[in-house]
């Protein structure tokens, strides 16, 4: 009888192997994070300064004095604002720095102690990065936020959206940031704000009734105006879901900054139009809702699958690039839509024969057949297909091990033994070695 | 993927007679990498990610299992690393330091979810669904059961177990990642093993793995 720790090690190795296999099959995820990380600036280096010994006492005395002043200031300073986060199901205290993500069909309210409220629409990701007595700074990574700031003397609020900063005093407006297309949209309901960053070297004021659409990528912006009363009603008390749609806005005034129209910047070029959608009368879809490719790149697989399904999953499969198609089929798999996933992988193999990703699709079809459908003969065929196409591929070790296992479970014990011998020759210490040794015995 | 650790050019402004700035490659050691990040050198942050992104993802995956927020947490870990890199005393200890930040980020996530569960008053039977909202369907039953059993352990025991038995870290590495002494981690691990074995009895999928073990059979 083996020690418990050995059994746990064995189980742990199996878990790790499956996880590593899963990671191998999920290409491009690290790129998503890497892109997001490239906008984060490291803290500047704090250079060490040589302090002469004789001055340390003076420094200590000054420090004590400063400390006293800080304590006095601290005791007299007004308390920083607090905020709570409320969803349909729960309510909890908000924490500075914590990521807030509104899931599909969910709206998050951030209620501050001064009466201000930020409402994160579904699929929005943001965090409060700083709070003090005068206001807060909020970072919107992507999505749509309705903002209603209670006017107070000397209040100071900032909403950061990529390179843009919206400086607020007391007002009500809605902002939306699409990082994929570097597109900012701002719709003013009341009061005024100042926007800086990207093409706005100096802070530029915006007033009630104005709608700004700015593309940092194209260095262009467009300002449209209409009476504030005509703007869509977004009463903050009702946690509005309706969002201002630029397609509803009146005819634009002449563009500022650039004479060319901002070419449909709200809609990614890669997004195919819905075939039945009337080109001019239908409201334009929000990019985060319409571009399943963009959602895939953000790692939002279930939403990406839903978006593609809404457009017609089979049609999208016929038009997507190999990389997108593989990711879309993966997304269907994560969403539990196995028949759609299998369709996607099959289309990938038909449309892109010889491509590396077609072989990955064969491997994944094998795993679905093995793990979900318990169809071991089919699994063996697909694992064999992968090995024929990529005998030295990144997944070859796993494919051979699982081919051996599939054949054994399908009742082809001779075939399993042959594969077991081959496995031991190539991967004597691999994760399937123990099974291979057992199967290779006559 | 473009590797930003390689030389890159910054073109001079049009009409300028000044030369171009050519950044030398960031040497393949942690001390130079930390220095490059601290001095705000372009591409250093992504070089850090290229070097340790896979490692951190693996640590998070081991501790949390397949989790739909894994990429967010991965991003969060690196944001924390970049924001506090000046507090790293010994740049040679970069990997261990990043690992401990990853571990504590995962720990915070687990604890936060526990609090939310209390707030939502979720029935115990639903807990694992909340814990692993998007476990990929292709993972085997044994893996699912493993994380379901781990989900019933105290968070520190779960972490020690995952790092030791799933990731295969040495005891000293586990202790460093959890920021406790070697003696503490040994005690914690012993408790985790016993508690996991007890919980695992509720999962028939784990029986083939543990049935031959000495303490599994009382």
Q: Secondary-structure element sequence of chain B?
A: EEHHHHHHHHHH
**Oligomer category:** heterodimer
Q: Can you count the beta strands of chain B?
A: 2
Total helices of chain B: the number is: 10
Structural category of chain A is alpha+beta
Strand order of the largest sheet of chain B: 1-2
Mean pLDDT of chain A: 75
Using only CA atoms, what is the Rg of chain A? 29 Å
Average of pLDDT of chain B: 79
Chain-wise SSE layout:
The complex is a heterodimer of chains A (442) and B (218).
Chain A: H1 4-25, H2 29-37, H3 56-76, E1 83-86, E2 91-93, E3 99-101, E4 108-112, E5 117-120, E6 125-131, E7 136-148, E8 157-161, E9 164-168, E10 172-178, E11 183-190, E12 192-197, E13 200-207, E14 210-215, E15 220-225, H4 287-290, H5 292-297, H6 301-311, H7 313-319, H8 322-334, H9 338-351, H10 356-372, H11 376-389, H12 396-409, H13 413-426, H14 433-440
Parallel strand pairs in A: 7-8
Antiparallel strand pairs in A: 1-2, 1-4, 3-6, 4-5, 5-7, 6-7, 7-10, 8-9, 9-12, 10-11, 11-14, 12-13, 14-15
Chain B: E1 8-10, E2 21-23, H1 30-38, H2 44-64, H3 70-83, H4 94-120, H5 127-131, H6 141-150, H7 155-166, H8 171-178, H9 182-200, H10 207-210
Antiparallel strand pairs in B: 1-2
Helix pairs in contact in B: 1-2, 2-3, 2-4, 3-4, 4-8, 7-8, 7-9, 8-9
């Amino acid at each position: 009888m083996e020690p418990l720790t050995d059994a746990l090690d064995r189980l742990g190795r199996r878990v790790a192997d499956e996880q590593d296999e899963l990671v191998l099959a999920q290409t491009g995820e690290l790129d998503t994070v890497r892109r997001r990380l490239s906008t984060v600036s490291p803290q500047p280096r704090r250079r060490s300064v040589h302090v002469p010994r004789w001055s340390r006492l003076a420094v200590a005395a000054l420090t004590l004095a400063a400390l006293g002043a800080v304590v006095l200031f601290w005791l007299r300073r007004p308390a920083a604002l607090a905020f709570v986060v409320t969803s349909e199901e729960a309510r909890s205290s908000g924490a500075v720095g914590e990521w807030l993500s509104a899931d599909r069909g969910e709206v998050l309210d951030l209620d501050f102690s001064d009466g201000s409220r930020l409402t994160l629409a579904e699929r929005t990701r943001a965090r409060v990065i700083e709070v003090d007595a005068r206001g807060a700074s909020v970072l919107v990574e992507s999505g749509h936020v309705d903002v209603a700031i209670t006017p107070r003397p000397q209040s100071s609020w900032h909403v950061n959206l990529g390179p843009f900063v919206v400086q607020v005093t007391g007002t009500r407006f809605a902002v939306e940031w699409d990082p994929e297309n570097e597109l900012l949209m701002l719709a003013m309901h009341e009061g005024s704000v100042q926007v800086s960053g990207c093409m706005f070297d100096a802070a530029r004021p915006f007033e009630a009734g104005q709608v700004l659409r700015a593309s940092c990528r194209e260095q262009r912006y467009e300002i449209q105006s209409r009476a504030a009363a005509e703007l869509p009603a977004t009463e903050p008390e009702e946690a509005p879901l309706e969002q201002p749609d630029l397609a509803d806005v009146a005819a634009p005034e002449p563009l500022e900054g650039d004479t060319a129209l901002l070419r449909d910047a709200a809609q990614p070029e890669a997004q195919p139009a819905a075939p039945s959608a009337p080109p001019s009368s239908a409201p334009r879809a929000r990019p985060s809702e319409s571009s399943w490719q963009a959602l895939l790149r953000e790692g939002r697989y279930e939403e990406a699958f839903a978006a593609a399904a809404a457009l017609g999953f089979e049609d999208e499969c016929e038009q997507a690039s190999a990389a997108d198609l593989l990711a879309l089929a993966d997304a269907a798999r994560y969403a539990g839509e196995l028949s759609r996933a299998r369709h996607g992988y099959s289309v990938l193999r038909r449309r892109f024969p010889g491509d590396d990703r077609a072989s990955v699709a064969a491997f994944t079809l094998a795993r679905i057949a093995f793990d979900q459908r318990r169809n071991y003969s089919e699994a063996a065929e697909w694992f064999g297909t992968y090995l024929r196409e990529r005998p030295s591929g990144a997944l070859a070790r796993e494919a051979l091990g699982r081919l051996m296992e599939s054949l054994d479970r399908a009742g082809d014990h001779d075939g399993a033994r042959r594969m077991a011998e081959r496995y031991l020759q190539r991967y004597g210490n691999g994760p399937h070695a123990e099974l291979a040794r057992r199967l290779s015995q006559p | 993927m473009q590797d930003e650790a390689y030389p890159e050019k910054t073109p001079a402004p049009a009409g300028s007679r000044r030369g171009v700035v050519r950044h030398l490659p960031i040497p393949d050691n942690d001390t130079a990498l930390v220095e490059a990040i601290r001095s705000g050198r372009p591409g250093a942050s992504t070089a850090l990610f290229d070097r340790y992104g896979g490692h951190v993802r693996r640590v998070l995956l081991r501790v949390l299992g397949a989790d739909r927020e894994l990429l967010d947490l991965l991003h969060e870990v690196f944001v924390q690393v970049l924001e506090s890199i000046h507090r790293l005393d010994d740049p040679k200890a970069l990997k261990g330091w990043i690992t401990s930040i990853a571990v504590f980020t995962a720990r915070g996530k687990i604890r936060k979810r526990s609090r939310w569960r209390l707030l939502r008053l979720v029935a115990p039977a639903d807990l694992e669904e909340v814990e692993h909202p998007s476990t990929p369907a292709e993972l085997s039953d044994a893996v699912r059961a493993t994380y379901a059993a781990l989900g019933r352990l105290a968070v520190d025991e779960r972490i020690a177990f995952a790092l030791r038995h799933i990731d295969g870290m040495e005891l000293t590495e586990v202790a460093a990642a959890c920021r406790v002494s070697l003696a503490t981690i040994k005690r914690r691990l012993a408790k985790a093993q016993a508690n996991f074995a007890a919980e695992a009895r509720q999962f028939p999928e784990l029986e083939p793995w543990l049935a031959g073990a000495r303490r599994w059979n009382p």
